[in-house]
Amino acid sequence: MGCCLPVIRKVSCTRPTSSARRGRRFTFWQLSRRRTPVQHAYDEHLAANRYFDRHFGAEAAKILPGEYYVSDAGMLLVTVLGSCVAACVRDVEAGIGGMNHFMLPDDGGRETVAASARYGSFAMEVLINHLMKLGARRNRLEAKVFGGGAVMASLTSSNVGQRNAEFVLNYLKTEKIPVVAKDLLDSYPRKVYYFPQTGRVLVKKLHRVHNETLFSRERDYKARLSQAPVAGDVELFI
Questions:
Q1: Which whole-number Å values give the CA distances from 236 to 29, 102, 131, in the listed order?
Q2: Is 88 annotated in the active site?
Q3: Global pTM value
Q4: Is the Cβ–Cβ distance between 155 and 103 less than 8 Å?
Q5: 26 and 130 Cβ atoms separated by less than 8 Å
Q6: Catalytic-role residue among 3, 4, 13, 84
Q7: Could you report the per-residue pLDDT of 143-187, keeping only the tens digit for each?
Q8: Does the 7-14+27-227 domain belong in CATH 3.30.1330.200?
């Protein structure tokens, strides 16, 4: 953690008004111990794809690789996972929750195992910081985690899905955030529906995937990670 106080830097400036509860982007604050700008390895950002889900009768946000979303309203968060993982984290009393969607870069070549883990830590910390900015309490957080499947031939040899799954479980254990549900690994993609206000989750196992969109998105995301700098230090609100 270091002995110096963190510097608070504002990176988004939309105020969380009552209309924000209906899907607008929320403000979040990023903490850095350095005075230089934090490098965004993931270009982690709020999901912009929002729509009305007629099946569930709720406003929904679709989370793509490298994105996250938080809500304190009755929204639905949706993502489709292959080798990537998603952490669904919520304050069980306040009903504030969110979901991210990420993978670790390859641990070979120029990336060390420690540097690779920093990408995942960045994705988790941005999500948790945003929840806490909205009023969530760290000691009331719980998590449900999904994904990490061995679904792409080009990624199975390096055990990308397994590394992603192991990372997110180890991270949450270290941060003392209980994992109350999980569906990880195996050889199929998953579609995850998450209601952050109540914590309800539905997982649909996609045993047959005819659409190449999922694989294309993960390949593109993996390529972006291989070119991106390691994220700077981001600390959690305490």
A1: 10, 18, 10
A2: no
A3: 0.71
A4: no
A5: yes
A6: 84
A7: 999 999 988 665 445 688 999 999 999 999 999 999 999 999 998
A8: yes
